[in-house]
């Protein structure tokens, strides 16, 4: 028996045993829900606005670095040794500055994205709990963990509608 057959057999056994004890089972697609929420779009807009200034500064610095490198490549033959060294030092300084500013900005952005995503996931959890209670659903599973489910058992749209009303 192949490993896949064993896994499918075990999954089917677990699902069968769960369905014997549970009156009602439903599934949700968390990724689909989060993608459709107006709160997600608002979060993305907020983060874009919050980090617009520092991103623009980094973009300008990156453009300055590129310009200086191109200038060095174009004009190095006509530059004196001192001018070449000065431009090299300037480019290296700008590259170090870019790295020292880009990494913390990236970390701050990731941290803020995580914070905001956790807020949205908390809303999803609350909505799932509420929909499950209203419809007397005993177990809610993530759709990604299920091989097959009938569309009637998917409550993702109901959860999305409930959260969207909060906006």
UniProtKB/TrEMBL annotation:
Family annotation (Pfam families): OmpH
Alphabetically ordered keywords of this record: Signal
Top-rank taxon, per record: Bacteria
Signal peptide: 1-22
Family assignment from sequence similarity: Belongs to the skp family.
Name this polypeptide is given: OmpH family outer membrane protein
Lineage: Bacteria, Pseudomonadati, Pseudomonadota, Gammaproteobacteria, Alteromonadales
């Amino acid at each position: 028996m192949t490993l896949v057959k064993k896994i499918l057999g075990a999954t089917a056994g677990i699902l069968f045993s769960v369905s014997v004890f549970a009156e009602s089972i439903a599934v949700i697609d968390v990724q689909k829900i989060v993608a459709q929420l107006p709160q997600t779009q608002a979060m993305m807009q907020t983060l874009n606005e919050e980090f617009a200034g520092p991103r623009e500064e980094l973009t300008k610095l990156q453009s300055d670095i590129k310009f200086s490198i191109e200038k060095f490549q174009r004009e190095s033959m006509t530059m004196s040794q001192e001018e070449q060294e000065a431009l090299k030092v300037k480019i290296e300084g700008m590259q170090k500055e870019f790295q020292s500013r880009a990494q913390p900005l990236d970390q701050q952005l990731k941290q803020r994205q995580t914070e905001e995503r956790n807020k949205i996931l908390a809303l999803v959890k609350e909505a799932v709990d509420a929909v499950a209670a209203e419809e007397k659903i005993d177990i809610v599973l993530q759709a990604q963990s299920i091989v097959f489910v009938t569309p009637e058992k998917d409550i993702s749209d109901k959860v999305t509608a409930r959260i969207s009303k909060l906006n």
